[in-house]
Amino acid sequence: MVELQLELRKGDISVKIKGASPDEVLLQFDAALSLLQSATEKLKEKKIEIPTVPTFVPSIEVPNIGAPPPAGCRDAIVRLLSTDWGRVPKTLGEIMEALKINGIYYPKARVASELLIMTRTGIARRLKTKTGFAYILAKPV
């Protein structure tokens, strides 16, 4: 036996009617239609709050390294770490976030390799912390 199926939609609400014959589906149609109408009326009565988009608030207090723009990735890192903000060891993630807040975009791998080179050449020091490695300038500029 063939089963018939009818689907009613109104907005995001849908009601499916299944039956063995067209007469059976038509009998259920009136009940389904009234159910669909009452559901949409109830939704109209409820005031739905539309969430607002939160404004961006940086999770860390970062210095503005503004004008003139840094000459490169190393210069940007040195300028960040030479401020009062950089006197406390900073993780790679914190440095990346500070660069982004200042409108300076470098790939994470580039910043990580630059920090490694700066550590090897003695410009910066790498310290082991509970959360991983943190970087600080070896000599204040």
**Count of β-strands:** 5
Helix content: 25-40%
> Which secondary-structure class do the elements indicate?
alpha+beta
Question: Uncertain runs with pLDDT below 50, 5 residues or more?
Answer: none
CATH homologous superfamily name of the largest domain? Winged helix-like DNA-binding domain superfamily/Winged helix DNA-binding domain
Individual helix count: 4
Number of domains: 2
- Main sheet: strand order: 3-5-4
H/E element string? EEHHEHHEE
| Strand proportion | 15-25%
Tell me, briefly, the overall form. rod-shaped
What does the average pLDDT come to?
A: 81
- Alpha carbon gap, first and last residue: 86 Å
Largest sheet: 3 strands, antiparallel
CATH architecture of the largest domain: Orthogonal Bundle
CATH secondary-structure class of the largest domain? Mainly Alpha
CATH fold assignment of the largest domain? Arc Repressor Mutant, subunit A
Give the C-alpha Rg.
31 Å
Quick overview:
With 141 residues, the chain is an alpha+beta fold.
Secondary structure layout:
Blueprint: E1 4-10, E2 13-19, H1 22-45, H2 73-81, E3 90-91, H3 92-101, H4 108-120, E4 124-129, E5 132-137
Antiparallel strand pairs: 1-2, 3-5, 4-5
Can you characterise this structure?
- The chain is of the alpha+beta class.
- It has two domains: 4-45; 73-137, Winged helix-like DNA-binding domain superfamily/Winged helix DNA-binding domain (Arc Repressor Mutant, subunit A, Orthogonal Bundle), CATH 1.10.10.
- It contains four helices and five strands, in the order ββααβααββ.
- The strands form two sheets. Strands 3-5-4 form a three-stranded antiparallel sheet. A two-stranded antiparallel sheet has the order 1-2.
